[in-house]
Amino acid sequence: MSWKQKAGAVCLAAGLLMLPACAPAETAREETAWDAFLTQTDEQHKTSATQAAAPDLTAYVYPDTLAEDYDAQNPWYLDGGEGKSTLTAQEAREDAQAFFQLLHDFYGGYGYFGGDEAFQPALEQVLNDLSGKAKVSAKSLRQSLESALTPIILDGHFAINGYYLCASQRQNMYYVPDLYLDDEQATAIDSAYVKRTIGPDGALSWCFAALSSNGSDLPETLGEYTGLDWTLAEAAPGIGSTVYERREVDGLTVLVNQVLSDVGAEGDGWDERMDQLNEFAGSGESYRGLSAFVIDLRGNIGGQPALARQWFEGFAGTDPNPCQSTLIRWSPLNGYMEALGYSVPEKPGELVIQKTEGTWVEQNSVIFCLTDYATSSAGEWFVGDLHTMSHVVFVGSNTCGATLMTNNQTYCLPHSGLSVSFGTSLMLTPDGNREETGFEPDLWVPPQDALEAVSRLCGYYGLTS
Q1: What is the pTM of this model?
Q2: 419 membership: H or E segment, kind and range
């Protein structure tokens, strides 16, 4: 029996038991509304996944030689000491030059963001900031580096001493609470500000929602609606706290995964963390056959995408294959990537470039994937993989927007000890750079309310037995 046939049977039973006042014609109309929405969503996801070409990364020029040799026996770039809070002018210059040396030699986004033509003037700007000073604080050096690079780099992973360079460009979901529109009302409003949502009764509806950096650019009046109270959609509670949990909510199976990494787990806690990660990765097959279930990725702070891909393969019986191009640069810190089975360059200055054309996976379960702005990095790559599968509906807010760079590593400057975190691998999809914007949901719902809203929708349309 197909999912539509199952849904039809369950919906009819729900209509008889829960909605005795509804005529059969009304039940059929509501079922058709859900069918039409799911079909349209599948078509949009499939088009994005399969009808575009992987970007040509060879169009970006990358250095074919390193700026310096790297002595594995004297790894100054791994010195995690406290460093100096105040530097001499020469020490500050050496740190600035070391910083740009690391970018030139290891940063996967170096060519993508302009190569030498962009980064050399940025270095000159920093050196000019330092000129004429006898002493330079580590803080002012950091601020000078940030000022020079912020106009160049849009990379959600790039950080200097824990400060994410493009955080000020972050786009968040804003919405107008407790205001719902029907199809006719929504059609009369600018589509930039009205989105699909789940109404208070569980029916598909429309709401005012949009992306904005701080909400100040959103209109107070749209059509007949005035005094619109645009509100920031907060992340759901519990960011990064649950490795894996399977639970039942109102007859709906919910998979919760908020972290894909062993970082932060020590001693006996590390063993427990790895057991939980492996349990999650190996659980995919157990979700087969469910008519509908939830993958809750709200607060997923990322980690190792291979774990989520193992779950996908167990559930779907095939590996995910999104349309993308990946460039991996040589780095003396690439060892752990190789241990995980990734192809890495063997020689300094060497590149590995891989391309995959998107493959669409058909399956019968209706999957609701919950997201918020804390869904990031490998959590977002999981979202990207799920976009290649039929009957997956994304509910909540947009994700963080930290997918461009992979294999993110941390280096240290020799005198100040400032940490520099960036990726040696670039991963680009046909729709370009989504940093600080992320994946948009299919149904825009305040993340803290997303699970309850999905439960209402499933009850309304009879998607769970």
Answers
A1: 0.89
A2: strand 419-428
